Amino acid sequence: MFAASSSLYMEERIKHLFRLYMDNKCSRKEYEEFFAYIRQSEHDETIRELVKAAYAQAGDTSYIDEMGNLVLLPPKRRRRVMMMPAIAAAIVVLAAAAWFMQAPALTRKITERSEYKYLVLPDSTKVWLNAASTLEFPTDFDKDKREVRLSGEAYFDVQHAENAPFIIHTGKVSTTVLGTAFNIKAYPGQENIIVSVSHGKVRVNYGGDKKPTLLTQGQQVKVNEITESAITKKAALVETAPWKDGSLAYDGETMAEIVADLERVYNVAIRIDNKAISVINISTSFRRDIGIKEALHILCKLTDSQLLATEGVYVIK
């Protein structure tokens, strides 16, 4: 009795989410919930029936093939009826459902500004996810390789697996390891992707025909995705990822890069009015708990600039 009630509730919930999707009224959580149901094979029939009913209103202007792809009929065979946007959306849902049913289920972990998360992946790899970052990984890794995708910054302590390399994709750069600990910083809009190794060995690939860079303990590489160039050096920082222990440390980064980092860490707005200041390279460190004002005062002293606060925005001049 309970199982039947639960099944009925689930079916009604899917129908409700489908209606919201059709009306373009889904919130972010409802959208993710709806597609989570699509990925669960036990709900296939309910979703197919919903889309079938919506699709029936579209006439014979198109059809879905056995792979879930939308196929348009030749002009002579089409009715003079325009497909409603909502019906088109329903067909897209079916195509997406077919893709999800064939592709491995993905888990996405997101941190907001000033938020941090500790994760344990399916292979027991440990991950510390920094502020304003996103990590995508499969529910189950393949036997011959383990692949994840990162936007932002994370520290990985990878579980060793001799025949299954661990690969992190960050834009055009991929970092491959068997078992090691390292930090990757790859925020959108950031000039360089930075990989720093705590212990072990990693291989960093960038540019199609470029020779991979091999890093060992205490080494760091900065890869410029635009110029496809890389600079390798010994990391000056004692700790590869000081941020996960409550410290903020910068080694030769520009004022603009540091300010962007502080905006994520403290969830504030900061503006640099003097462009000459934004390109100054700075090496410094301080505890995160000193607060944004004290952190900016330190940076202003180092760059001989002034700090103002106006209308909720910190201004550096």
List the helices and strands and how they pair.
Elements: H1 2-22, H2 28-39, H3 44-56, E1 62-64, E2 70-72, H4 85-102, E3 106-110, E4 117-120, E5 126-129, E6 134-138, E7 146-157, E8 166-170, E9 173-177, E10 181-186, E11 192-199, E12 201-205, E13 213-216, E14 219-224, E15 229-234, E16 247-254, H5 255-266, E17 269-272, H6 275-278, E18 281-287, H7 292-303, E19 307-310, E20 313-316
Parallel strand pairs: 7-8, 17-20
Antiparallel strand pairs: 1-2, 3-6, 4-5, 5-7, 6-7, 7-10, 8-9, 9-12, 10-11, 11-14, 12-13, 14-15, 16-18, 19-20
Helix pairs in contact: 1-2, 3-4
Main sheet attributes: strand count, strand direction, barrel closure: 13 strands, mixed
**Beta-strand content estimate:** 25-35%
- Quaternary state of this entry equals single chain
Query: What's the CATH topology label of the largest domain?
Result: Jelly Rolls
Number of strands: 20
Structural class: alpha+beta
Please identify the top-level CATH class of the largest domain: Mainly Beta
- Using only C-alpha atoms, the radius of gyration works out to 25 Å
How confident overall, as mean pLDDT?
Answer: 81
- Given as residue ranges, the uncertain stretches (5+ residues, pLDDT < 50) are 60-83
